[in-house]
Write a structure and sequence with these properties.
This protein is an alpha+beta fold. The protein folds into two domains: 2-98, no CATH class; 109-412, no CATH class. The protein contains 17 helices and 13 strands. It has helices at residues 97-102, 110-139, 145-152, 163-182, 184-188, 190-194, 201-212, 219-236, 241-246, 266-283, 285-296, 312-316, 320-323, 332-335, 343-350, 380-411, 417-420, and strands at residues 2-9, 15-21, 27-33, 40-48, 53-58, 61-63, 71-76, 81-82, 85-86, 259-260, 354-357, 362-365, 376-379. A five-stranded mixed sheet has the order 6-1-2-7-9, with no helix packed on it. This is SEC-C domain-containing protein. Pfam families: SEC-C.
Length: 449
Amino acid sequence: MVFNTFIKCQVCGCITRVRLQVGWQEEHPIEVTCGKCGTSLSGKVKIGQDCPGLNFSFDNADDAQDENADYVVECSGEFPTAKQAEAADLDGLVVTPFIRYMNCMKTEDSYEEFVQAVSQLNATAKKWKNYKRILTLAKNNSEYLTQEIQKEFSGQFFQCRDESETLRAVHMIEVHGLYSALRKDILNDLSFSAGILKMDSAQMKNLIEFLNSHDGFHLEELQELVYKVYDEFMTVYQRLIPALAIQYCKENSFDFEHEGSTTSSFDSVKQFYLDAYEALGNLLVIPVALNNIKYRSDINAMNPIEKNVNSLEDYIKLTKASRYHFCLDSEVYTSFLKTFVNAKLRNAIGHNDVEYNSVDQLITYIPNPKDRTKKKTEYLLQFENEAMHMFQAILGVSEYLYRLKELELMYDGKIPIIVQEGGKWPKKIGRNELCPCGSGKKYKRCHGR
C-alpha cells in the first residue's frame, strides 16, 4: 500500500509530496531534503500494524494541506527508492518500491529471508537493553551475570556452572541476536569455526599469548571492541535496512544513480562506517594469523603482500589501510568474512576531503590528498552497503574470537563440566527444541540430523 502526505519546509515554504510505501515495520526513520533550499527534513513514521494508522513527525517541516507539491519523493523503511524529483517527473510513476524490489530477487526465497532478517533485528533491538546489560556484567565478571543470563535463556545448558558454560551463554546473544539475522552461514556450518579448536595447539597458544601481550589486542580488549560496535549498530540499523535489502538481490540489479535511501543520510551513518572500519582493522589480526597457521604452519609466516612485513609484530604496526591488504579472498579465514572496503574514501573522510549532495545522494571525495585535482564519487547506498559488509565481517571475526577464548580456558586447565560429565545430553530431545550443543539451532537442524 502507498500512502501520500504533504509537508511544507519551514525555511522556504516549498511543498514536498512524500509517497510512502507502507511496510511491515512498526516505525522507521525518514530522511529527505527540501529540493528548493536544501534543508534536511528528517523525521519518523509510526505505522499501526494491529490497528491501522500512520503518524508522521518531521523536523523543519509542517503538515501541508495544499496538494500542489513542488517535489515528490518515494519513501520506504525496507527498500531502495526512486530519488527525489520535481513533482511532474514522477506523476505517472505507478510501480512501487516493493514491486521493483521483488523483480530483483536472487531466488524465490530471498524476500522471505530478508523479511526474517529484519524481523530478527527488530526483535534484538527490543531486547538490546537486557542484552547490553549481560555483556557489561560479563566484561566486569559480575556476580549478577548468571542471574541476568537466566532471565533471557533457559535450559540445562545455561546453568553457568563454570566459565565455559558462562562464555557460551553470553555468546548466545550474538547467535540469537545477530548471527541468525546477518550471518546464518556461521550457524549453517558450525564445523568451520569449530575447526579452529583443532588447529596446531602450539601455534594457537602462541597466537593467544601474542594477542594478550600487546595492548589493544588482548582477547578481552578485542571482545570489548566488538561489543562497542554492536551497541552502535543497534542505534543505526534501521537506517541501513535498504542497504541490507541489496544483499538479497541479483548483482547489478540497482541503478544507484536513480535509486537511493530515505531512511538515512551521509551524516547519520558516517560515524558508524568509520567505527566499523577502525574496529575491523584491529580485529583482522585474528583471521590473518589463522591463515598463517593453516597455510604456512606459523602465526608469523606472513603472506608476502607488503614489504618488510615478516611477522604479526610487523603486521600490527601497519596502518589500517595496509592491514586490509591482507584480507584475501584466496585464504579461507579472511575470505569467509566477505568484506570489501574503500580505504581511500575512509581517509578522505578523516581529512574532511568529502562533499555530499543530499538530493542526488552522491559522495564526492579526493582519493589522493597530494593531487586535489582528481575526485571520485560513490552513492550513499554503496557507502552503506560497505558499512553493512564490514559489520557482518566483524560478526565473523567475533566467532573466531569466541573459539580463541574457548581455547584459552582449556590451556588454563579449565576443563568444561560438560566434558567432565561425558557430555551427557538428555535421553530424549524434541526435534524443535534448541540443540543441547549450544549452537542456537533447532535440534532437527543440528545434531538431530
